[in-house]
Amino acid sequence: MGISFTVLSSGSTGNATVVRNEETTLMIDAGLSAKRIDELLKEREVTGEEIDGILVTHEHSDHIKGLGAVARKYDLPIYANEKTWEAMEKSIGKIAEENRIVMDSGEVRDFGSLRVESFGISHDAAEPVGYCFYDGNEKLSVATDLGYMSDKVKQAISDSNVMVLEANHDIELLRMGRYPWNIKRRILGDMGHLSNIDTGAALSELLTGDLKRTYLAHLSRDHNMMDLAKMTVRDSMEERGCFYKDSEFKLCDTYYDRPTPWDKVSEP
């Protein structure tokens, strides 16, 4: 079976992704209400009882809004590093001690035949992380809420077959937008969010024969659009001498209001 995944929802209104192989089903974040997460799971023919655990990237509400409720409803273990646990405990409510599991940043953990590696990222949270998933020769990487693409992150997600990668904002739309300047400065800073241009620059270094698809994720509804993100990412890559055909590498959509289709990492 290998690795397959669906991005249930992506954006500032809530984030959740499901990754599975033949033995294990994991959710990354639970940033929507428990009711909405159940609805999105149902759309992809998954039940809460099938989930084996929830991996947390960081404690911001758009990543943990339904975390406590989902974990209690289905008696699920939650995996997060100690600083994230400390930062989110008051927000998620009481969690059974056996379901409160510390997974350190940089730790590699096996869930049956699905191997998961966390890696540190730059964001204004306690100790934010992204995740890589391995099954045999397959590799899926999930990295959003990136202030910038550090060399360590590039190293962690290199040689991926498929990525879910942030393309949060168009810089000019953000600068002209309604947000106050202090918020704009946060988003543009090294602990904020990755712009379309920066995503393209990173992909120009990461695009190898192994990488087949990248899902552009965590788009701002105020300062981005999927078509604009794709165009800017492509232009940014080409400006750096990275040319490709859609038959060789694809930029894929994510949505804030509906899940992506199931994607098998092994598929060309």
From TrEMBL:
Could you tell me what reaction this enzyme catalyses?
A: 3',5'-cyclic CMP + H2O = CMP + H(+); 3',5'-cyclic UMP + H2O = UMP + H(+)
Please give the coiled-coil regions recorded for this protein: none
Q: Which InterPro entries match?
A: Metallo-B-lactamas (IPR001279), RibonucZ/Hydroxyglut_hydro (IPR036866), WalJ/YycJ-like (IPR052533)
Matching entries from PANTHER family are given as:
EXODEOXYRIBONUCLEASE WALJ, METALLO-HYDROLASE YYCJ-RELATED
Q: What does this protein do?
A: Counteracts the endogenous Pycsar antiviral defense system. Phosphodiesterase that enables metal-dependent hydrolysis of host cyclic nucleotide Pycsar defense signals such as cCMP and cUMP.
- Protein's name according to its UniProt entry: MBL fold metallo-hydrolase
Q: Residue ranges of the Metallo-beta-lactamase domain?
A: 13-218
